[in-house]
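Quick start: read one record
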Amino acid sequence: MEGEITVDDPRAADVRALLERHLAFTAEHSPPEDVHALDVESLVDPTITFVSYRVAGEVLGVGALKDLGAGHGELKSMHTAAAARGRGVAGAIVEHLVALARGRGLARLSLETGTPEAFEPARSLYARHGFVECGPFGDYGPSVYSTFMTLDLGDPLSR
């Protein structure tokens, strides 16, 4: 699928609608204390770069890169519209965000996703892109509802 990934505004009406579906999905499959998805206003934080994947102007997927400091980044708010799943949208966004993290000199990129079966496609996607399971990072604590994954981006000085 040929689409364009660009920095976008999570407050835009079409993006907000997709993010609301993302929040509903996470709330449906995780208890409230284990929903770590960011709301629209949190995604406007200056430490976050928010992107969308569009085809002919239609938003089909979103994702974000959060700078955690000390050379560590986090993937956030990855979501693909139901009608576009299985068409390479999420993979393209992951590749874009990994390249963005590398370009910024980050040494590690991590993420949190769910353990319930509904999150299996996400865990498989991240594993296909080189992410491996790790322990909690940042402000996360251990939870049976969370899977933590990380990708070593290498020493930026050696590139």
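The two ends are 31 Å apart (CA to CA).
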